[in-house]
Amino acid sequence: MDTELKAIVETLSRPEIKDFALRLDIKYQIKNAEESIKARKEGNDIYMKKEHTDEDHKMILYYYNKSIAYAPSESEELMYAYSNRAYLLLHINKYNEAIESLDKALQLSDSITMKVKLYCQKAKCLAALGCSMKDVVMKEIDQILKKSKLSTEEANFVTDIIRKTKLSMSSMKQFKPQNEKFLQEKAECNQIINDRENVDPLDFVEIKSTKNMGRGLYAKTDFKTGDLVLVEKPCMIGPHFFNQYVFCSQCLSVAWTGIPCEACHDYMFCSLKCKNMAWEEYHQIDCSITPYLILCDPEIPEWIDLNLKFIITLMKDSKTIDELKSKLNITKNNQGKFN
């Protein structure tokens, strides 16, 4: 494994790359407002179709999450990307997830008309969930308008939005998930798996050789049909690069409320928990390495992230990761910089 480490460090130590590292702050260069806008428009093109399939919803999520991943921090592009994703989530009845995206968009919005639109969408979500907080949100809109000076055109625009929102909420029935039983069974299954992961599998099975069957895995206790025998974690998992913005890079859950890496645009996480786990396990390394590899070869294949993830995981297991981190001068939540 020292060979791989040496190769990476030697590549990153090339004079032209050191010079590049000194001249540019990589983490801002690899965010790209134009790419964010392009991805959002591609998602919009599918969203505007009269009818959607499940595959359409997947592709819309892909493009909106990609737009979020590419958008510079605190930018207007990021606000619009979160807003558009919220509209998709509301459209497919994922109201709690939509509220999460709407709140992020609201934090980034400076426009009064945009804030009103976002608050109205949030009120719709709360109404669908049967939550009385919808009235609080509508009062918040009133407070915003009282403090604002809008042109006649803007005032008419937001008044119309509010009118349509109230009309929509008055006829809205409380949403009842149709897959509650499935979700409950899934949660129970996940709990069983989590419980078993914390138990030594050799309490239930053993590896041994017998005269008739040879070497194999044998039960040490009786199992009933449907019992979970053992849980074996894969060495590494990750979404195919065609789906890198649809599924969590850490656990492969659908990233309905995907959280991007602040530095790069290659990873999407379903939660802060997964994001932090990925950072500690491998992403603090590959997030620093990838920009330099792209500098060396702009045509670098898209699956390089998975390869890097695999190498880093192996190096970590072999306890050579600290040396690599030292070479890159990596600290928590910061990209590597050369000394």
Automatic annotation (TrEMBL):
| Domain (MYND-type) ranges | 248-287
- Any one Gene Ontology molecular-function term assigned to this protein's record: zinc ion binding
Q: Does the keyword Transcription regulation apply?
A: no
Q: Which parts of the chain span the membrane according to its record?
A: none
Q: Which UniProt keywords apply?
A: Metal-binding, Methyltransferase, S-adenosyl-L-methionine, TPR repeat, Transferase, Zinc, Zinc-finger
The residue intervals holding the TPR repeats read 79-112
Query: Where does the source fall among the domains of life?
Result: Eukaryota
Q: Which GO terms describe its biological process?
A: methylation
Q: Which InterPro entries match?
A: SET-MYND_domain_protein (IPR052097), SET_dom_sf (IPR046341), TPR-like_helical_dom_sf (IPR011990), TPR_rpt (IPR019734), Znf_MYND (IPR002893)
This chain belongs to the protein called MYND-type domain-containing protein
> What organism is this sequence from?
Trichogramma kaykai
- Give the organism's phylogenetic lineage: Eukaryota, Metazoa, Ecdysozoa, Arthropoda, Hexapoda
